[in-house]
Target: histidine kinase
Amino acid sequence: MKKIKDIVNRDLINLTNCESEPIHIPGSIQSHGFLIGVKQAPDFVIDFISGNCEAFIGVSPQSLLGQPLRTIFLDQLFQEFTDYVARGAIDASQPFVFRRAQTPYNTTLHYSNEILVLEFEPFPDGSQNLPDLYNQTRRFISLMEDASSLTDLCEAIAAETRSITGYDRVMIYRFDKDYNGKVIAESKRDDLVPFLGHHYPHTDIPPQARELYLRNLLRIIADVHYTPVPILTIDDNTPNKNLDLSLSILRSISPIHIEYLQNMGVAATLTISLVRQKKLWGLIACHHYSYKTLPHFTRLSAQLQGHFLTSQLSVREIADSYELSQEVEANYQRLLPVLRHENDFLTGLQHMPELLGLTHAEGVVIVNEGKLYSAGVVPPEPALRKLIHWLQNTVQGELNTSRLHDLYPEADTIRDTAAGIICNSLVDTTQDLILWLRPEVEKTIDWAGNPAKAVLPNEQGVRLSPRKSFDLWRETVRNQSKEWHSVEIQAAARLTFSLQRQLLLSYLSREEARYRKLSEKLQDTNAELENIQWIGTHDLKEPLRKIQIFASRILSSSFDALPITVADPVGRMMNAANRMQSLLDDIMAYSLLTKNNENAFAPCDLNQVIREVRHELKEELEEKKATLHTDTLPTLAVIPFQIRQLFFNLIANALKFSAPGKPPVIRIHYTPLPATETGAHRITLADNGIGFSQEHSEKIFQVFQRLHTQEKYAGTGIGLAICKKIMANHQGTIVATGQEGEGAAFVLEFPEIPTHRPF
Model:
């Protein structure tokens, strides 16, 4: 004994949120046809069947469940059906016609997951003939040619659809970006109240219903007063067994929508989806005030009107915006010469009427480096600067809105000048902006009933109930401007890009001029420094030599006869003069390194350089009992006298800072490197002296920087600065490492060939 159950979704009865309503699985159908769901071939076993099949074909649903479909088909008809299914593509223009007791049934097929769903509808007028597609297409082409705008075309399509279908009222309903709808065209019986221009809130068609309109482009309700027919199936313990009826023609209607239509006084409907770029653009909504259904092919004729209109949506909208785009482009082209050829182009733009005409704004403001350039009607400066401050901290890139109040609460104080705004950032910063402003446009919207009462609790408070009244309800909308057209938004972005480029060029030009002036000042300063160097190396040397000579004579000729109060100051004067002489010599050496030595590069054997330095420091090496070990060094393209000074300073530095009581050991190690931009030859000079803390590794290369007192270690503090400058002249690097009490190491890296002196 088969156990039978229905799959009616009883959660629909206790619904509390219409946006959560699972309208694709009602578990029931409308009563003007019947439904059978079969498993796949070859047997096509009946797994689902509507409870009213006996009223149509005289066989109970209980006896058919679990049986092959051939049970209700004659053998020949069943073979025709299997051949029809085997062709694969289900063509709505060539439906399968099922006959029983001389009654023809239009049989539409679709797949619901693995189930093949058959929906049987008797032909209402017995007609099984295709409509006159040629004449219908010819009439549409004529309408398309006569219509001067998209609105005109919609009005013609509404009238033609009503002529084809015979419904009492046909409306074309267009959605805005929030899916609120507006009736933009209407054809109706003369005695009916017009709905043209009425708005309907987005809650009238919730998201899941809009999704179904995208999947199933035609929807018919024959009688809003029908009693839903349950779909039956064998209870085989399959959990959540149901049937997705998203593509069904007979699918039962949401109780909320049925009540909605009943409140409107509508008895039957036909709805055709209008889809543009895979989004629901609108609907052709047909209303009838008594029972009505349509033959299959008449439905197709009505749906063809929808296809005709859909094919024209993009074309007509582009045509409607073409004139606007031409005007905007002309304004943009007139602005470009001001940008490109005027030095003070921001002031120039400020006085160009085309800047406002570019977006049909009433006011425009450019914010650049804290300065405001404005034209047209703009808010008072305190309110404007407050808005700009908010934008600078809010906008990332761009913002466009016709309802600034939704984003900026204080917008109601400036709605007479800035209810809507286009704002774009300039020069990759949120501080510099350009904004176009539009004032408030007070707008009256005619709603079909109060939108705040789109869905209300019913008397029992159990589920939601649609509003009862569809009488005209007029709303006055504040704090919004005229909508910005996409053409205007794109034009604003184009000008912003051009303005960004010119501001960047202007900035670079100013920086170039600033650096040019700075360079001139540096040249003047350098000339003065050269004069000071000349004074230091010539004018100061002469009196310094005299001081040294006179002090030397005093100390050498009569030292024994001098009282200590005279000999000591003279000796200190002599030492100071000697230190001054060393300092002047080092300053002169350092200044020579800043000269252009580009032509002084020549191949130089570094081994010979080390031999010359060893000879020059022979006495110091012997006095300190120092040992100098060196690897074989390469021949490099260098400035020979500078390299001599480099190694002289480094070796002398190692001798100077040797550890007390420990003979200095100086090692020079060479490592060839893979040729890179930074170095191809590494030479390391290491010693075993007093070393230094690694935190001073950069400080020791700075001019006049010393880590020890003059009394403990004599010197001018310029020697290592000279070494760093020499390495920079050779496009090389010098790095120092050290450890207190353990010694120091200087790592030199030379490029293969300096780029400014090819060999």
Summary: Confidence is low (pLDDT under 50) at residues 460-465.
